[in-house]
Amino acid sequence: MSDPTTPTPPALPETGGAAAPVRLQEGLRHRAARGTLINAGFLAALTSLGLVKGFAVAGFLSRRDYGVWGVLVVTLGTLGWLKQVGISDRYLQQDDDDQELAFQRAFTLELVISAGFFLLALVVVGLMTVAYDRPELLAPGLVVIMIIPALVLQSPLWVFWRRLEFVRQRSLEAIDPVVEFVVTVGLAAAGAGYWSLVVGLLAGNYASAAAIVRASPYPLTLRYDRGTLRQYVRFSWPLVAAGAGGIVVAQSSVLVGNAALGLAGVGSIALASSIALYTTQVDQIITATLYPAICKVRDRADLLYESFVKSNRLGLLWGVPLGVGIALFAPDLVRYGLGPHWEPAVRLLQVFGLVAAFDQLGYNWDAYYRARGQTRPIAVVSLAAMLAFVCVALPLLVVDGLDGFGAGLAFTAVVTVAARGIYLARLFPAFGMVRHAARAIAPTIPAAALTLAVRALDGRRTLVVAVAEVAVYVIAALFATLVLERALVRELAGYLRRASAPAAGASV
């Protein structure tokens, strides 16, 4: 993925081993690049299906019902961040002679952690019901935590991920969102309320788990090793701390939101959060795809820097136009799609869109620290974001409702990106966040300006006019991207056109 416009920083200190042969590097480059593009397109379609599901269900549910779901997602979903202690990341880093044994040891640790997490979740469901004084949360909460065994059974995906067998991995993962969409929307249309979301979640995950277990290249055997446990603990404890910071942010937003605004306000926060999550999906997909390759070249500063800059630019090509587009068209989305009962959420949707776009800057930075086994900076950045949120966003939520909450989120995003930039500068001295941001935002500026100009010329507001403006915005953003990022686009297109034989023949 060479690019003459990308400066090369000085080499990082070697942590062991000589550089890979040129043929291996090129084979790995081609497979990673092609895999990134294929995965991004494939999973963007599936995450779009999830976004459509969220809006479709919102049309059938009241804000209060959506608020119940929001409490469940935040309380139990974010609690799951504690469970994400880096088992899969550490498994991808290892290079043991016996790969079956390595997987089974990692699977054993995942099972043990999940069992403890399940017991913790049982306690949390009871506390959640009492804390919110909402007895209706108990039954769906107990059902939702039954997803944990399904998640454990999906562990064999790690093997396909490590082997860069992306088609097999993504085909198995696709079962979940497709089944979940069909079941959820069908039940919502039938009047099942928030139970449609609960049942759909379980149906999708268990259908996917069944297929993954069947396709597993290794038997799911328990193999415990104390030395392996120590290695995983050293790697994982900062990730647990980072997850705890995220939990504080998410849980406090719902607790304070429920106290200040009621379940309807929580519903608005939950819907806006789903849009922000969608905006970050492509960057998450790109990072996950590249991570095994990053681990293999973690001692090569030039390759790390190149992959970071270009992968983040690729994510920004999606995230910035989408986030700005949400800000531009949120009123139309509510007026012509969700319905007037979602009108109080319009400004929050707009703020979430802009914040999500800004948050894409350097979003995948942590993968490069994880690949080098340096996970403490991840905990530090999470702590900074948590403090900014608790000290600014929560008080503004109480004082000024959803508008104040939006302003607090913007402040939190600035703090997060600034902290992220500090660690990026340490890892890549040639990296400049301001220059990187200007390059990422540039294609969206003419598209947004043209859309606002068209809107100013014709003050009428109908569904046809709104759809026409969306078309103008999308076409202008695509054209500006092709012009301003033509070197990157041409290079990426070349990877897709190139015959796969050379890459397929390379050992990774």
Please give a quick description of this structure.
This protein is mainly α and 508 residues long. The chain is 80% helix and 0% strand.
Kindly describe this structure.
The protein is an all-alpha fold and 508 residues long. The protein is built from 21 helices and no strands. The chain has helices at residues 22-60, 63-77, 80-83, 87-93, 99-132, 138-144, 147-153, 157-162, 166-173, 175-189, 195-215, 226-296, 301-338, 346-359, 365-371, 376-427, 433-441, 444-457, 463-484, 486-497, 501-505. Mean pLDDT is 79; it is low at 1-25 and 499-508.
Percentage of residues assigned to helices? over 70%
Strand content: under 5%
Poorly predicted spans: 1-25, 499-508
- What overall form do the CA principal axes indicate? globular
Query: Helical segment tally?
Result: 21
- What are the secondary-structure elements, in order, as H or E? HHHHHHHHHHHHHHHHHHHHH
Average pLDDT taken over every residue: 79
| SS content category | mainly alpha
Roughly how many Å is the radius of gyration? 23 Å
The span between the termini is: 18 Å
Biggest β-sheet description: none
The beta-strand count equals: 0
